[in-house]
Amino acid sequence: MEKMKCPVCGAEDLGDPSHGMCNRCWWYLAPDGCGVDFGYLMYRIKTYSDGVRRMEIRPRGFWSESIKVSEERENFSDLDSEIKVDISWSCGGVDGTLNPVDTAISFRDAMGFAIDTAIGWRNLRKKEAEQDRLNDKKD
Predict the structure, then answer these.
(1) Distance (Å, rounded) from C-alpha 106 to C-alpha 96?
(2) What is the DSSP string of the chain?
(3) Does 110 reside within a domain?
(4) 115: in domain
(5) What's the CA gap between 8 and 1, in Å, rounded?
(6) Within-domain flag for 2
(7) Is 1 contained in some domain?
């Protein structure tokens, strides 16, 4: 593989020239990755067969997803069980494309995005549960 400068994140990385970007950005932005580039972060959302979602967020300046927003069923074997929303984070390692202050700002902004997403998902699940309760009362 040849060395290239990624036009998305600016990293100098070994990548597949046919992708037109580094492998880390391709992981998020490939057509089958369903990722979105917001400039200060990249994210992708996976929806599983039971309807729960998982979002992986890669803030600019980090080489891997550092923040995850996920939904989990309270009882994995019961598809009608309550769905909880969780946020987790770790450093993930910096890629050197930003200075330390800008990297921290990127992480802070991505964390705010994750919190807003988690609140939205939680509120949506609450509305769905309330609608299900109302429908059960009608029956």
Answers:
(1) 13
(2) --EEE-TTT--EEE--TTTTS-HHHHHHHSGGGTEEE-SSEEEEEEE-TTS-EEEEEEETTBSS--EEEEEEESSTT-TTS-EEEEEEE----B-SSS-HHHHHHHHHHHHHHHHHHHHHHHHHHHHHHHHHHHHHHH-
(3) yes
(4) yes
(5) 18
(6) no
(7) no
The model's pLDDT over 95-130, given as tens digits with 9 standing for 90+, comes to 888 888 998 999 999 999 999 999 999 999 999 888
Question: Which tens digit of pLDDT belongs to each residue from 10-55?
Answer: 877 656 778 888 888 888 888 777 888 888 899 999 998 888 999 9
Domain that holds residue 58: 34-138
How many domains is the chain built from? 1
Task: Determine the residue type at 102.
Answer: D
